[in-house]
Write a structure and sequence with these properties.
This protein is α/β, with parallel strands linked by helices. The chain has helices at about 30-40, 55-65, 90-95, 120-130, 185-190, 215-230, 275-285, 300-305, 320-330, 345-350, 365-370, 380-395; strands spanning about 5-10, 25, 30, 50, 70-75, 105-110, 135-140, 145-150, 155, 175-185, 200-205, 245-250, 260, 265-270, 290, 310-315, 335-340, 355-360, 370-375. The longest helix has 16 residues, at about 215-230. This is N-acylneuraminate cytidylyltransferase.
Length: about 400
């Protein structure tokens, strides 16, 4: 079996005293479990999803969801890990001993009781983990006025009551929301703990504070999920948040379309270091990158190697077909692809990609179908601008800005 980097483990047992059968209770219009499974499947960093359960109904639900076939696995669960007093760590250790966990080197514990988790949260937490931490957990920031009682029962506050600040001006404190924990398999097996060593804190949206443990939590989370769904009608302005693969043309996008011929007849091109940083930032965010070009040559290969792209297609005669093949390789849809091109041979893919872009000096045919027309020209930071806009939309910093969109809504 091929080595797997990151596996998401979702423990869901049959017994639940607070809310009987809660993992299949409908919330936000779908079963509770589905929200976290879909978030895990949508994350670029996740290679495998393992649902650990002793509930026959949950097993039937997983097996009966066609879109999950081959993507969500069901390791057997030892009875001792499904009792009221069993620890979550015992479940993780049990799963790591199963055949379904063969080759796993990194483990992400995801709680089904945190349906407000997004794929982007998993990718962001994993990127933080990979930045040098031994483990990472998700938190939310709460800006509340805190009080405490001393040994004499006297109340003291963490602020000056005589100069009460505004709540929004408080620095706030970070609280675990129970959504995701990431560590290495080695650390888990060695320490028996979901977090250890140098711990990183990944801050999620404040609304993700609520976990589904009591009936009242279902009401709160149901309203939040329905509000989220109502505000997420797909469109160009939020397409960046769905991107999992960014593809680029070369001539006219990564270059200024100029060509230099050396004395020996070898062709050379000039590339922008800023664009190179754009590829790096996308990679660090867990987004795959690739180059599709009709051109061929060692200088293109050298640039692709320098950029550490996930895919390079040279000599392309049908960029849409080549992009579709990449999607099949990584189980993506074209809606999850962003492509930046500049000329007529890019138009077919630009029309089908979830998000399309072009440099400021693109040809009219490409500009007419682009969702995002960059302010920068080809070879002078257009790709970096496109990448920055995608990352901003993905992180929720802002909606994708469409400065000169020509596509009809």
């Amino acid at each position: 079996m091929a080595t797997v980097t990151l596996a998401v483990v979702i423990p869901v047992r049959a017994g639940s005293k607070g809310i009987p059968g809660k993992n299949l209770r409908r919330v936000g219009g779908r079963p509770l479990l589905d929200w976290t499974v879909e978030a895990a499947l949508g994350a670029v960093c996740v290679d495998r999803v393992l649902v650990s359960t002793d509930d026959p109904a949950i097993r039937r639900h997983v097996l009966g969801t066609p879109a999950w076939h081959g993507r969500v696995l069901l390791p057997s669960r030892a009875p001792a890990t499904a009792t009221d007093v069993a620890t979550t760590e015992s479940v993780l250790l049990d799963v790591m001993g199963s055949p379904e966990a063969t080759g796993v080197t990194e483990v992400a514990l995801v709680q089904a009781t945190s349906p407000l988790l997004r794929a982007a949260d998993l990718d962001g937490a994993h990127a933080l983990y990979r930045s040098g931490f031994d483990s990472v957990l998700s938190v939310v920031r709460q800006r509340r006025f805190q009080w405490r009682l001393d040994a004499d029962g006297v109340a003291t506050a963490d602020y000056d009551p005589a100069a009460r600040p505004r709540r929004q001006d408080l620095a706030g404190h970070l609280i675990e929301n129970g959504a995701v924990y990431i560590t290495s398999r080695e650390a888990l097996m060695r320490t028996g703990s979901r977090i250890s060593g140098r711990i990183g804190l990944f801050e999620m949206a404040e609304e993700s504070y609520t976990e589904v443990d009591e009936p009242a939590d279902l009401t709160v989370v149901d309203a939040l999920l329905r509000r989220r769904s109502a505000g997420e009608t797909p469109g160009p302005s939020d397409a960046g948040a769905r991107v999992r693969l960014v593809l680029s043309d070369v001539d006219g996008v990564l270059t200024d379309n100029g060509m230099i011929y050396l004395g020996n007849g070898v062709e050379a091109k000039t590339y922008s270091a800023r664009d190179g940083k754009g590829f790096e930032l996308l990679r660090n965010a867990g987004i795959r990158t690739g180059i599709i070009t009709s051109e061929q040559g060692p200088q293109i290969q050298a640039r692709a190697d320098k950029l550490r792209v996930d895919a390079l297609v040279m000599g392309s005669r049908d960029k849409l077909a080549d992009a579709t093949a990449l999607c099949e390789r990584w189980a993506l849809s074209l809606d999850e692809v962003a492509f930046i091109g500049d000329d007529v041979h890019d138009v077919a893919l630009m029309e089908r990609a979830g998000l399309s872009g072009c440099p400021a000096d693109a040809m009219a045919a490409a500009g007419a179908v682009a969702d995002y027309r960059c302010r920068a020209t080809g070879g002078h930071g257009a790709f970096r601008e496109f990448a920055d806009a995608i990352l901003a939309a993905r992180s929720g910093t802002r909606a994708l800005d469409l400065p000169q969109s020509a596509r009809t809504p």
